[in-house]
Amino acid sequence: MTVIRGTDVARSLGERVQKEAERLAGNGVRPCAAILRVGENPGDIAYERGAVKKLELLGIAVRLAGLPAEVSQNTFMKELENLNGDPSVHGILLLRPLPPQLDEALIAERISPCKDVDAINPDNLYKVLAGDKSGFAPCTPEAVMAILDHIGEPLQGKKVTVIGRSLVVGKPLALLALDRNATVTVCHSRTEDLAGVCREADVLLAAVGRRGLVTADHVAPGAIVVDVGINVDDAGKLCGDVDFESAAPIASYITPVPGGVGSVTTTVLADHVVRAAKLQNGL
Ligand code: NAD
């Protein structure tokens, strides 16, 4: 069994992104990401801190656009329109979920597709559905694909099982795997015999948000296991959906939490911002 470290996966992509950011800066364009955060959710603040660190490290400027938790839809939309219309901002990352007074679906529709670096706009999601690479795919599913590429096992013809069917992770992840000609199964909260279905998988991708959901019982000998889940254990430490201790000895490759998918996600985000800057400036 091999433990796949996210930092190893992110290294070569990060080097490419940094070179591109330098090349753009040489052409007078400093790639810039705006992070739009509503309220003071500690999880959002932690994610924002990690993203800022990675983006700046790779030569990308960051504009923090923080709004109070009680912000109105009108004020939010004005801020979004400002960012959409600002030529010095190339990518917009919206931290979600949003408070209930904000209409998330409408906001997703209004974010400019060419700045929508985490693919929440329906135009970009449709492109994921259609296998059209000209848009952006959501960063986390793309990070999972980068991990699978790093392992080097082609997905063609493989049985890939995704646990979770959210629009943010599970569904786009299933579509990206399908685009690689995998035979894809999507499990969710109503799936019967989850362990039995998962044991059929050559590649098991867990994106649920439930600590210890995936145990040795869910993993076929030699399967690849990628853990997208982010949870907190009783001691307050980060952990994934997979019970690492029991699943790791059975898997061929496995990602840890922390130190797995999350470390790749922010590098994919940086890649998207640089690509957005290139596209917006014809470079
Ligand atoms: P979500 O709550 O929107 O969706 C969870 C999915 O899990 C649902 O589709 C649900 O049907 C399924 N589910 C719930 N209980 C289940 C069960 N007992 N058996 C099988 N399926 C079950 O969550 P999300 O936004 O898709 O995120 C999933 C996890 O990934 C969370 O832990 C989140 O924190 C994490 N996440 C990680 C990253 C990263 O970069 N590593 C990014 C985004 C989300």
Protein described:
The protein has helices at residues 6-26, 42-57, 73-85, 104-110, 122-130, 139-151, 170-179, 194-198, 244-247, 261-281; strands at residues 2-3, 32-38, 61-67, 91-94, 159-163, 183-187, 203-206, 224-227, 231-232, 238-239, 253-254. The protein has 283 residues and is of the alpha/beta class. It has two domains: 28-113, Leucine Dehydrogenase, chain A, domain 1 (Rossmann fold, 3-Layer(aba) Sandwich); 139-262, NAD(P)-binding Rossmann-like Domain (Rossmann fold, 3-Layer(aba) Sandwich). Strand 2, helix 2 and strand 3 form a beta-alpha-beta unit. The longest helix is centred in the first third of the chain and has 21 residues, at 6-26. It is globular and about 50 Å long. The protein binds nicotinamide-adenine-dinucleotide.
Write the layout of secondary structure elements.
Blueprint lengths: L1 E2 L2 H21 L5 E7 L3 H16 L3 E7 L5 H13 L5 E4 L9 H7 L11 H9 L8 H13 L7 E5 L6 H10 L3 E5 L6 H5 L4 E4 L17 E4 L3 E2 L5 E2 L4 H4 L5 E2 L6 H21 L2
Parallel strand pairs: 1-11, 2-3, 2-4, 5-6, 5-7, 7-8, 8-11
Antiparallel strand pairs: 9-10
Helix pairs in contact: 1-10, 2-10, 6-7, 6-10
